[in-house]
Structures are given as structure tokens and as C-alpha cells.
């Protein structure tokens, strides 16, 4: 990005100032990054003056060099993002023809009108919670509400339950929650891949997020497995609809906003559902469906399983490589490993571990609390980035890492690392939506106009500035690709898994 004369003069002055202390340098770098002046311009100017002071303090020079390396490694240049979008479009097209794991067509070909109404039972099997709720679709003014719900934490013990053990656990929680309303129709939002074989059934596939429920049950019918587990608990329950959580998000948002064509989940995991013309997929992808389905369907909602895309096209840093190497399933979900809540904290931790050894972070001592894999939670990064000052961020960090020796300078480094990692993630999410939009636009052959992405998940909802940064990247990508004034807008879809599960039942 080229700088205006005024900005250049300001930077010249600041660069003279910046020779004085590293702290000012860090502050200027992050301040200017926030107001969207190219990081490189600032880094280049400031680096030329920083070396005189950094040499005085052991580890400082290495630290500023490391920070510069991180800035370069995580930079998201728009031109790179645009060419990544083209590569992802190719990958999407191939998967729409052949992949058994991604671009999975649902049975939902109709989006809700907003007039649907009634009371439904909804289950949400998420990455860290299982919820059972009673949902009312009110029909008038397209409103939906959760009448009651029970939430159960899915801790590591539950994640390790193998095969039917997990479904028996689920059934015991359902039994606890639904007394008196068993007769209602039930929809399920499932936050894992599923190969749908009807609106109420689908084959269980590989599960990420540390779950073992699929062990021994690959290919089994999810609807039957759940109904049978409920029967073992004496419950007579029948499943009316199963949808992936990204599809649920699309449906829930479409219930209130008619321009919705995408559903984005970005929490523990990542995924996007998109409504595309049926002609985008090969006939093999639909498996055996009743001819009535094909006669009625012009469009279909597809669960992209975005997490598994990207492969060798995605930007890769040495910390991404390390994360992948240490992962129980290397290469399984490359996109997810770069953007989702389960991994952002771990990428940051790997960088901090290196900075401790090579750049004197925390006085060169790695606190025990950061030694184990995944011990730095993305939630902490999010809280630190919302803190109003460095010292407030430092307090939050120290509360979770009581033995760490943290200077203000260390803290600035940590928050800069968090910002760079999440900015890259926001850029990558924007790329994936741009690529899916392009694909849809090419296939629809009509002007797309203003479309909406229903969004849900802790990162897109709660991480400070994430949604805004993602929208900004999207707007720039649309500007650069001359999209003829088409736009795609991110919109939060509250309680989308539960509401979407209910909408899926009624859309049947
Ligand atoms: C799963 C998807 C799910 C997404 C968001 C991914 O890890 O594979 O099926 O939609 O997480 O929950």
C-alpha cells in the first residue's frame, strides 16, 4: 500500500522518535496496524532505528527480529488472498464432483419463508456442549424463541467415550430434559460431517475436535443410532431432521433474513454451508434419493466441510507445520488448524515457546502452565485483546499463568502475536466466502445482488474485531474482483443451531 505525503511525513517523525525505546516502537507498530497503514512500511522504518537500543538488553534484538518474522509470516496481502480464492474455487469444484468427505449435499432444497410456526424439540451436538431445547417458531415477523433449554458440557471424558457409549450418554441427558414433550417433532444440529441419506438420517463420518464417538460406527445411520440409544433409556423418540450445524445456521438466518445464502460457523471448529444450484454437483454426490426430491429441487444447501480444504494452497508458517506435526490427525483439517478457536491459542503458544528460548520472553523461562499442548486457550487471547490497557491484559495473562515473569514489553509481544494470528484467520475466512460466492455466482448465472451470511460461533461472535476485520477483507476482495456491486454481508445468527434444527424439521 502506498502512503500519502502526510502519512509519510508523520511516519518519518515517528521513526526518529522510535529510536528511543522499543516500547514506543511496539506501540507505534500496533497503533498503525490498527489504522490500516501497511505493517511493512512501519516495520521497515522502525527497524532501521531500533537496533541501537535493542542491543543493550539481552534477547531484545532477537525479539524484534522474531516479531518482524511473525509479521511477515502472518501478513495477508489482498493480492495473495485473491489468488488463494481462485485456488480454493478449483478445490471446491473438484470436491463438488467427487469428494466423499466434503461438499455434502443436505436434503434441504427449500429455504424458509419466515411464516413457518410451531413448537419443536431441538438437539445441538456441539464441540464443547450438548444442548436440548424446546424451540418455538412464531411465524409472524419471522421470530423464533428458545422456550427452555438444558446445556451439558462435553468435557474431555465425554469426548473420549467410544461409539455407542457417547450416544448412551446423550440419551441419558435427553431423558433428563424432555419430560412431557416427547411427542414433539425433533431436529438435530450435528457439528460433524454427515453423509445424508434422508432428511432424518445420514452416515456417521470421521469426527474432529477430539471426539471418539465415531469409533466403530463409521457409516452407521446417525438417526437410528440416536433413536436406539433413546429406546435403551425407555424413551420413544423419533428424529425428523438432521442437519450439520453450518446448514442449521443458514436455515436459522434465512428464517429472519431472506437474502441469506451462506451459514458460517466459527467457534471450536469452522464450516460454511452454502445454497447452490443442484447442477453444481455431480449426480454421484446425491446418492440414492427419491425421484420426487430431484423433481422438486433446483437449489440445494451443501455442507462444504470447509475445515478440510486448503491443503498445500494455504499460507504456512513454521508454527503451522509444528501444530500439524504434533496433531493426532496431521493434515485432516488444514483450514480449521489455521482459523478456529481450538487452534488459534495453540499457534500463539508455539510462537511464545520459541520466543522464550530464542528471544528472552518471560525472562527466558517457560511457565509450566504453557508447557502442555493446547494449554493457551483462545479465550484468553480474546479477553486480552478486549482489555483496555496493556496492564489489564497483563493481569489477565498472569491470572492464568501465575509463575510467568511478564514485563510490559512481553505483554505487548503476546498481544501483537494474538492480533497477527487472528487477522490472518479473518482474511482466510473472507477468502473462503469469496470463493464460495464466486462459485455460486458462476453457476446461478443471475446477478447475485446483496447476499447475507448467517454467522455463529465463539470466534466470530466474541473475538474483538474479528467479524469487522473479516467483513473488511470481504469488501476489499469484492472491490478487487469487480463483482458488479454484489455484496456479501456477515450477520450474527443467534442460537442458530437450535433454531436451525427446528427450521429444518418444518422445511421438510
Ligand atoms: C466439523 C464440521 C462442523 C464445524 C463447525 C468441523 O470440525 O467437521 O462438520 O460444522 O466443525 O462446528
Could you walk me through the main structural features you see in this protein, from its secondary elements to its overall organization?
With 508 residues, this protein is an alpha/beta fold. It has helices at residues 5-18, 22-34, 39-54, 60-74, 78-98, 156-159, 164-177, 222-232, 245-256, 291-296, 318-326, 334-339, 341-359, 378-386, 390-400, 408-444, 458-462, 466-480, 496-507; strands spanning 104-105, 117-125, 129-138, 144-153, 186-190, 194-198, 201-204, 239-244, 260-266, 270-277, 299-303, 450-456, 487-492. It has a six-stranded mixed sheet, sandwiched between helices. Strand 2 (117-125) and strand 3 form a beta hairpin. Residues 1-56 have low confidence and may be disordered. Beta-D-glucopyranose is lined by residues 127, 191-193, 208-209, 244-246, 265, 269-271, 305, 307, 336. Beta-D-glucopyranose binds at residues 127, 191-193, 208-209, 244-246, 265, 269-271, 305, 307, 336.
Question: Could you name the key traits of this structure?
Answer:
about 500 residues; alpha/beta; six-stranded mixed sheet; five-stranded mixed sheet; about 50% helix
Can you give me a brief rundown of this structure?
The chain has 508 residues and is an alpha/beta fold. Helix content is 49%, strand content 17%. It has 19 helices and 13 strands.
Amino acid at each position: 500500500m502506498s502512503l500519502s505525503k502526510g502519512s509519510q511525513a508523520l511516519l518519518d517523525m515517528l521513526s526518529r522518535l522510535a529510536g528511543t525505546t522499543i516500547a514506543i516502537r511496539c506501540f507505534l507498530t500496533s497503533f498503525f496496524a490498527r489504522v490500516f497503514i501497511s505493517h511493512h512500511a512501519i516495520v521497515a522504518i522502525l527497524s532501521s532505528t531500533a537496533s541501537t537500543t535493542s542491543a543493550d538488553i539481552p534477547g531484545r534484538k532477537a525479539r524484534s527480529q522474531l516479531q518482524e518474522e511473525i509479521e511477515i509470516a502472518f501478513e495477508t496481502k489482498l493480492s495473495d488472498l485473491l489468488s488463494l480464492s481462485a485456488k480454493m474455487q478449483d478445490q471446491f469444484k473438484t470436491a463438488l464432483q467427487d469428494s466423499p468427505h466434503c461438499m455434502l449435499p443436505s436434503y434441504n432444497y427449500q429455504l424458509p419463508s419466515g411464516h413457518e410456526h410451531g413448537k419443536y424439540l431441538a438437539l445441538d451436538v456441539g464441540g464443547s456442549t450438548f444442548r436440548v431445547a424446546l424451540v418455538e417458531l412464531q411465524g409472524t415477523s419471522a421470530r423464533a424463541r428458545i422456550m427452555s433449554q438444558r446445556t451439558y458440557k462435553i468435557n474431555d471424558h465425554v469426548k473420549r467415550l467410544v461409539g455407542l457409549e457417547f450416544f448412551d450418554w446423550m440419551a441419558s441427558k435427553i431423558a433428563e430434559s424432555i419430560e412431557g414433550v416427547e411427542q414433539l417433532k425433533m431436529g438435530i444440529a450435528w457439528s460433524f460431517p454427515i453423509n445424508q441419506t434422508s432428511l432424518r438420517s445420514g452416515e456417521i463420518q470421521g469426527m474432529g475436535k477430539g471426539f471418539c464417538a465415531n469409533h466403530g460406527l463409521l457409516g452407521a445411520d446417525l438417526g437410528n443410532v440416536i433413536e436406539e440409544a433413546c429406546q435403551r433409556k425407555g424413551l420413544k423418540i423419533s428424529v425428523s431432521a438432521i442437519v450439520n450445524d453450518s446448514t442449521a445456521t443458514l436455515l436459522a438466518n434465512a428464517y429472519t433474513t431472506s437474502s441469506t445464502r451462506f451459514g458460517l460457523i466459527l467457534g471450536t471448529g469452522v464450516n460454511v454451508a452454502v445454497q447452490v444450484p443442484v447442477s453444481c454437483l455431480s449426480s454421484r454426490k446425491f446418492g440414492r434419493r427419491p425421484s420426487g426430491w430431484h423433481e422438486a429441487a433446483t437449489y440445494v444447501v451443501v455442507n462444504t466441510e470447509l475445515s478440510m480444504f486448503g491443503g498445500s494452497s494455504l499460507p504456512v508458517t513454521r508454527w503451522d507445520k509444528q501444530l500439524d506435526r504434533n496433531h493426532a490427525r496431521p493434515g485432516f483439517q488444514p483450514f480449521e488448524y489455521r482459523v478456529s478457536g481450538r487452534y488459534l491459542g495453540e499457534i500463539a503458544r508455539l510462537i511464545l515457546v520459541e520466543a522464550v528460548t530464542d528471544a528472552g520472553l518471560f525472562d527466558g523461562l517457560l511457565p509450566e502452565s504453557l508447557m502442555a499442548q493446547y494449554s493457551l486457550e483462545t479465550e484468553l487471547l480474546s479477553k486480552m485483546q478486549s482489555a483496555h490497557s496493556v496492564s489489564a491484559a497483563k493481569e489477565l495473562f498472569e491470572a492464568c499463568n501465575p509463575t510467568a515473569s511478564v514485563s510490559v514489553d512481553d505483554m505487548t509481544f503476546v498481544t501483537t502475536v494474538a492480533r497477527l494470528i487472528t487477522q490472518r484467520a479473518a482474511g482466510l475466512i473472507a477468502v473462503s466466502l469469496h470463493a464460495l460466492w464466486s462459485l455460486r455466482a458462476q453457476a446461478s448465472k443471475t446477478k447475485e445482488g446483496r447476499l447475507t451470511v448467517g454467522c455463529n460461533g465463539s470466534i466470530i461472535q466474541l473475538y474483538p474485531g474479528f467479524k469487522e476485520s473479516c467483513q473488511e477483507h470481504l469488501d476489499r476482495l469484492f472491490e478487487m474482483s469487480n463483482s458488479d456491486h454484489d455484496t456479501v454481508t456477515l450477520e450474527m445468527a443467534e442460537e442458530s443451531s437450535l433454531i436451525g434444527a427446528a427450521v429444518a424439521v418444518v422445511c421438510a
